[in-house]
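Moderator note: this is an archived Q&A kept for reference. The question asked for a predicted structure of one protein chain; the sequence and the answer are reproduced below.
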Amino acid sequence: MEINGLPLHPLVVHATVVLLPVTALVALAYVALAGRREQLRWPLLVLALAAAVLVFVTTMSGEDLLDNRFQGLTGPLAERVEDHEELGLRLRTATWAFAGLAVLTTLLHRRGGALRWVLWALLAAAAVVVVVLVFLAGESGARAVWGL
């Protein structure tokens, strides 16, 4: 998985690090700003689906990078890469859950009652989890690359 000889992973990571927090902010705005909910509905849906696809590409390209360029790592670097890989997989799972909640919330946009409140609470919580995991996965990846 390369583009012009460069591994795809470091290229798509930057898009992931930008898109996921932006999507999380849109989700939080959707939940918090009742007057803007209708306007934020479709952008949230599109961004959440794009984030789910992007995080899939990011993890797949990371696995490819590990298999093709970092086989046989040992010592502290291997531990840092393993930490990063584990956090990346957690981020993928959290992003898919977040995207699923975003889809469900936007499709049931006009529903009222307790279901609406439960979906909003779950969506907001998932948005926060995704942002935290983006930070942790990104920070662990930077530590692995730069040896910090």
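Archived answer notes: The chain has a mean pLDDT of 92.
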